[in-house]
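Mods, move this if it's the wrong board.
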Amino acid sequence: MAATNGHPFGTRIRRLREGMDLSLRDLAERSGVSAPMLSQVERGETSPTLSVAERIAGGLELTLSQLLRLDEADGVTVVRASERRRGGGRRHGYEVLTPPLPGLRAEVSLHTLAAGASTGEPDDPPLHEPGSRETAIVVEGRLRLVCVGLQYELEEGDSVTFDSDLSHHFENPGAGEARFYAIVAAGLRRS
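Not the wrong board. Structure tokens:
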């Protein structure tokens, strides 16, 4: 099974696995494919069956189709406005602006908070993985970061960076809507 643009399938798997900081053993546990078989595939000594390739893709948090076409765009991924992953509720909405690719080291999202609303409500996503850092930039309105019980007041144009694996949430203390970008850099995985 060969990849597009002349890159071998095994090289792509190795690059993705290493980008996710996974050992062969880690990927074996995640995919259900033995580490020796994964090693042979990565070295190009064998071609996996479609069933095995699909399990490897699942271990890399991809569908087989995504894995087979990953490098068709020469490393450039465009996320169209209509394709953004959206979430939240009536008072806190967000859009993830970065693509859902494995090994991505940062996620960028745009948040909108209604007057008096806060993040951290029941339908919000959980806190970030250990070691993560977040930078938030206020683009409209006022914002308050509450991190481990301490409050930080932010005005339009202000930014803040903090350890996002700590207990935190944002509040909109203003009378109008508040909008901010959040950039979360992934934590280092523990081996």
